[in-house]
Amino acid sequence: MNVDPHNQKKKVGHRSPTSRRLFNTYWLKLWNGSPPGAVLLSFAAVTGLLMAIPIVYVVWESLFAGADRWLRLLDTRIPQLLWNTLSLTVMVTLFAVAIGVSLAWLVNRTSLPGRKMWQWLLALPLVIPPYVGAVTYIIIFGPRGWLWRYWKQEEWLQQRFGDYPIDVYTFAGIFFVLTMFTYPYVYLIAGASLRKMNRNFEEVARAQGMTTGQVFWRVNLPFLRPAIGAGAILVALYVLSDFGAIAMMRYTTFTAAIYYQMGSYDNVSATVLSVVLILLTLIILWIEARTRKKQKYYQTTNSYHEPEILSLGKWKWPAFFFVAGVFTISVLLPVIVLVYWTVIGVGGGVLDAKFWGYAWNSLKVSGLAALFCMLLALPVVYLRSRYPSKVSHFIEKLSYAGYALPGVIVALGIIYLFNQYIPVLYNTFYLIAIAFVVRFLPQAMQSTDASLSLISPRIDEAARSLGQPPWKVMFTVIIPSILPGVLAGGALVFVSSIKELPATLLLRPPGFDTLAVRIWVETSEATYYTAAPAALLIVLVSALPLRYLLKKY
């Protein structure tokens, strides 16, 4: 059959404009008639894809682990790891919620002595990494710790109670440490909700004869449920992802098991365990999302009145000692221990050139990560805010991929990716910074989005009406207006990065140690006077964004 090439060319040329018109129509509809520029969309899309690649790669590798390896791990390791991880997550979350809500209620709604002072003091555990808290409690209560030495010196204690009764290397030990250093997530968010609660609803309930307790359970608690859910999900995700405190307290969860598998060069088993942990994380996020849909409560009245401060009466001093006790356990004791050993370390010449080299390494990778997070967050947030569509929301979700997952899984994906495809960067400190970007980019995005939401879209429209492309509008008009929020997000990323331990341990090149790594190494060797100065410096640096957090909440 002979085909006229000119006729064929005409038919193809005839179809092309029609297809192009259909595509343009669909593209305009997808973006609600206002599509973004190619430059802005490209930057945002590339950012989202890069954030998701390490996780996708880990899942992909696990699919080729083989049925035998999956079955062996399912029969041996995974059931025990599931029990250890889920039991710890559930217990820490429950007690953190109970402590956080109790403290928020006492500080914000009662006549607690010094309530204004306690409002920020009780948030201080946020600046102490749990693995630092674990170190301090090992020093106090551990074998050959301060309390152990006192016990051995006092014969009457041994005669009456026998051998030293405290074993920190148990479920109770790690449960106690994680609870004490994660309750502020619930405390801050619940406190914010309590301060915004309208007193009118409580007055109506009291007019119907309800007691203070009934008002709390039937009126206050329903309004608090979304805040409690938000705090609980933060606590649960942190417990799932924690490695430092868990490893120091010699408890084994999925994160610790993945790290140890990497240490024994069994990367395939590590990917299998990582997939199970990813599934656990997704299940928790799904449960939280389903629960949140069923717990929407709105204050519809326009006549807002500040909440009433309730008199504690005879419960004033018991409440005060409860609050002071939590503060002492979670802040005062750890700081005292760190200062004590830091003084000894400084006297022993710990603050030498090596120490400041570790500090510089921490500042270098954390600063690099903060800079890149600020730059990468802008196009993603601007696209989602100014050009809402399924595409922009999908790109935003991709950018959150690393935030809900442990640093050890992110590091695992980065190792596979760069070892096989980009070996020029393998075994360099740049991989640590990249891991921090994947883990903490959403922190910069959240802060940037909060500032951008205060800028009217009409400013963008006015600039675009003058012929400016979207990417240029973002850099010349929007960024100067939201710069404080962008810098605040960068500060949050910096502080989170300087505390990150598992990703740094797995990705650091030979001879490249950070403050977090030195705490891990020196604590493992029980040389606390060399670990304390690094831990205290991390705490002091981490305190910088606390004022921002308190303003936000």
UniProtKB/TrEMBL annotation:
Q: Where in the cell is it found?
A: Cell inner membrane; Cell membrane
**Cellular component aspect of the GO annotation:** plasma membrane
Q: Give the GO terms filed under biological process for this record.
A: transmembrane transport
Q: How does it sit in the membrane?
A: Multi-pass membrane protein
SUPFAM superfamilies tied to this protein: MetI-like
Family matches, as CDD domains: TM_PBP2
| PROSITE patterns for this protein | ABC_TM1
Q: InterPro entries recorded for this chain?
A: MetI-like, MetI-like_sf
Judging by the UniProt lineage, the source's domain of life is Bacteria
Q: Which residue spans traverse the membrane?
A: 38-60, 80-108, 120-140, 168-190, 227-248, 268-287, 319-343, 363-383, 398-418, 424-441, 473-498, 528-550
Q: Which keywords does this chain's UniProt record carry? A: Cell inner membrane, Cell membrane, Membrane, Transmembrane, Transmembrane helix, Transport
Which residue intervals define the domain ABC transmembrane type-1 in the entry? 82-288, 359-550
Concerning its family, UniProt says: Belongs to the binding-protein-dependent transport system permease family.
List the protein's name.
Answer: Iron (III) transport system (Permease)
Q: Which organism is it from?
A: Halalkalibacterium halodurans (strain ATCC BAA-125 / DSM 18197 / FERM 7344 / JCM 9153 / C-125) (Bacillus halodurans)
